[in-house]
């Protein structure tokens, strides 16, 4: 049996009405719920408004990661002292900034910003996992489009905590775990967004199907 991930990240929680269902699923499986944050897209599917975020974050019994996008992500990467986003209640921070050809200063800024908020910071990569263990790294060439990569990078034996995303859904997750080919005892996570949505909204039945395929 392939090495199971430490937890599954389901990104794009966008409704406060599902809190009880989130709690029920989290009580059965190790889950991190991702909340996408972008002031320019608030209240659209994927991007809950401030009131919905507050209801989710104060519900209790749930683990959340902030996935910061747009202008605020650019501020964190380039001028973290100007970022004013409130991240109380989150456990991790993913900065969805285009780091293609990025400078070391941008990675340094992301680490520093996360530490000032008491959060472990994450960045995305498109190839081999970087060696910088100050950050968690998510391999993601899909960026929410549900596109699977041609190959998955090798999980480093000794290095940062790493995750995998891209085209993962209830029907593909078992094959993805085989393709990742993590060594016994290796720690990693898997993340999905579009693969667990129906009509644009988070579908908890699909989330449960993924959890069953991985952990049951």
SS summary, helix count: 6
Strand arrangement, major sheet: 1-2-3-4-5-6-7-8
What is the count of β-strands? Answer: 10
- State the order of secondary-structure elements, H for helix, E for strand: EHEHEHEHEEEHEEEH
- The overall average pLDDT, rounded, is 92
Can you identify the CATH class?
Alpha Beta
Estimated structural class = alpha/beta
CATH architecture tag: Alpha-Beta Barrel
Low-confidence stretches: none
Total separate domains: 1
Structure description:
This protein has one domain (7-215): Aldolase class I (TIM Barrel), CATH 3.20.20. With 216 residues, the chain is α/β, with parallel strands linked by helices. The strands form two sheets. Strands 1-2-3-4-5-6-7-8 form an eight-stranded parallel beta barrel. It is globular. It is built from six helices and ten strands.
Based on the model shown, name its key terms.
single chain; 216 residues; alpha/beta; TIM Barrel; eight-stranded parallel beta barrel; two-stranded antiparallel ribbon; 6 helices
Brief summary:
The chain has 216 residues and is an alpha/beta fold. It has helices at residues 19-28, 50-57, 70-78, 104-116, 173-180, 204-215; strands at residues 7-11, 31-37, 64-68, 92-95, 120-125, 136-139, 162-165, 188-192, 197-198, 201-202.
Explain the layout of strands and helices.
Layout: E1 7-11, H1 19-28, E2 31-37, H2 50-57, E3 64-68, H3 70-78, E4 92-95, H4 104-116, E5 120-125, E6 136-139, E7 162-165, H5 173-180, E8 188-192, E9 197-198, E10 201-202, H6 204-215
Parallel strand pairs: 1-2, 1-8, 2-3, 3-4, 4-5, 5-6, 6-7, 7-8
Antiparallel strand pairs: 9-10
């Amino acid at each position: 049996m392939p090495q199971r991930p430490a937890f599954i990240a389901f990104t794009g929680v966008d409704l406060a009405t599902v809190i009880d269902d989130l709690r029920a699923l989290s009580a059965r499986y190790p889950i991190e719920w991702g909340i996408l944050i972008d002031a320019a897209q608030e209240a659209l599917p994927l991007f809950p408004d401030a009131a919905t975020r507050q209801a989710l974050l104060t519900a209790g019994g749930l683990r959340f990661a902030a996935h910061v996008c747009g202008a605020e992500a650019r501020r964190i990467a380039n001028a973290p002292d100007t970022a004013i986003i409130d991240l109380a209640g989150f456990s991790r921070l993913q900065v969805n900034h285009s780091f293609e050809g990025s400078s070391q200063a941008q990675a340094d800024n992301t680490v520093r910003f996360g530490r000032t908020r008491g959060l472990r910071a994450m960045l995305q990569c498109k190839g081999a996992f970087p060696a910088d263990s100050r950050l968690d790294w998510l391999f993601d060439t899909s960026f929410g489009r549900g596109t699977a990569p041609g190959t998955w990078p090798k999980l480093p034996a000794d290095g940062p905590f790493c995750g995998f995303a891209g085209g993962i859904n209830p029907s593909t997750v078992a094959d993805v775990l085989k393709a990742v080919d993590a060594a016994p005892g290796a720690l990693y996570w898997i993340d999905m967004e579009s693969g667990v949505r129906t009509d644009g909204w988070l579908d908890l039945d699909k989330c449960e199907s993924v959890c069953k395929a991985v952990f049951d």
